[in-house]
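note to self — DONT lose this again. spent like an hour looking for the file last time. sequence + predicted structure for the chain T wanted, 66 res
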Amino acid sequence: MTSTVSSLSQLLLLLLPPCMVIFLSYLLCSILIHSLTVFKYLVDPPSFVVVPLTPSPPIPKDSFQL
């Protein structure tokens, strides 16, 4: 009985790293794509975003100091 358990655990250990690598790479790619799209929207906002015509009030320099 213990031999089957050990062989199963060895099989799991063999199978786990590729799955983890695939999952981590997928996660990293999705995060990268999401941040790139957000950055693109920040740099070049799409035309359907309405830009307010009234100028924003100047922010006093004191508010930046926490």
